[in-house]
Write a structure and sequence with these properties.
Blueprint: E1 5-12, H1 19-22, H2 36-40, H3 51-58, E2 61-64, H4 77-84, E3 87-92, H5 97-105, E4 109-113, H6 117-121, E5 127-130, H7 133-139, E6 142-147, E7 152-157, H8 162-170, H9 173-178
Parallel strand pairs: 1-2, 2-3, 3-4
Antiparallel strand pairs: 1-5, 4-7, 5-6, 6-7
Helix pairs in contact: 4-5
Amino acid sequence: MSDKLSGKALLKLGDNISTDHIMPAGAKILPLRSNVPAISEFVFLYVDQTFAKRAKDAGSCAVIGGENYGQGSSREHAALAPMYLGLQFVLTKSFARIHKSNLVNFGILPLTFVNAADYDRLKQDDQLEIPNVRASLQKGNRVTIKNVTQGYDFEAQFDLSPRQVRILLAGGLLNFTKAGGK
């Protein structure tokens, strides 16, 4: 993980976004499950057909969500494919437990709003930055997010174990394991 995360908020979603919304299932996609570039073309397909192209064009991005983001299954591809597209962090009102763990495992920072009213202030396509993210992860449970587009800062929080923090700092579980997993 770099010391600054940044990206456009490519989607602003509501409540109860399931892993099916993020990474659809079905006969068309199932044969591609081992081909990450191919399955990434389907990320958020039924929410916004332009998401995959916009994410690739942006290079790095964020997603904003409401309550219970990632509910419904333990589908790892719902974190893997967005990571491939450059998803840096997801900022929500709350996460489904298993999906939050999958985000961490793929090096995507799961954050929740400290002040729920900040959700209402954000707009799709706002450019967001999290400076000093590595130090913030190591010293507490909050980060400062800069909304570069609108010109204000706000706080987000994370509920992560010390091990999950180390996994994120390593860039995901695979890197963490390669480094000895300590």
